[in-house]
Amino acid sequence: MSALDARQPPRFVPTLTDVVLEQSAPATQAQAPETLSTFAPEPPFEESCAVQPAEVAVVPLPIQSPVAAQDWSLMAQAMQVKVMERLDGALEERLRYALPDLVQMHTQTLYQAIRQDVEQLVSVSVHEAIAQELAHLQKSRAD
Q1: What value does the mean pLDDT take over residues 88-100?
Q2: 18, 78, 137, 142: least surrounded by Cβ within 10 Å?
């Protein structure tokens, strides 16, 4: 890495126009330095890559008076009331369509649970009644 840091970029790098001019008009060795000397050398690499501070445009913001702030507050409250009214209407309509389905689904689930419980209670009651009657018949035969 230090070998790369030690290298310095060339002071002058010929541009495309320099190369084209040299090829179109062959220059003698005496003319070549004069042709190249007419071009200004570019700054060193470090200077050309230096970050220049950006100019920042300052836009003055309007100063809000207490009256303007109060107007914004009133406008925000009015907007909130209108949004809540729209929300109430939309929710009421959606609930009107959604609630019957939900009630129907829960009623079916509740009906099934109640039916199972009633069937179990009736079954247990019948078994107990039959067991008691058999016990009573056996007792009466034994007497």
Answers
A1: 89
A2: 142
Q: What is the mean pLDDT of the chain?
A: 75
Give the per-residue SS3 of the chain: CHHHHHCCCCCCCCCHHHHHHHHHCCCCCCHHHHHHHCCCCCCCHHHHCCCCCCCCCCCCCCCCCHHHHHHHHHHHHHHHHHHHHHHHHHHHHHHHHHHHHHHHHHHHHHHHHHHHHHHHHHHHHHHHHHHHHHHHHHHHHHC
Q: Which residues fall within 8 angstroms of residue 21, CB to CB, at 6 or more apart?
A: 35
More confident call, 26 vs 80? 80
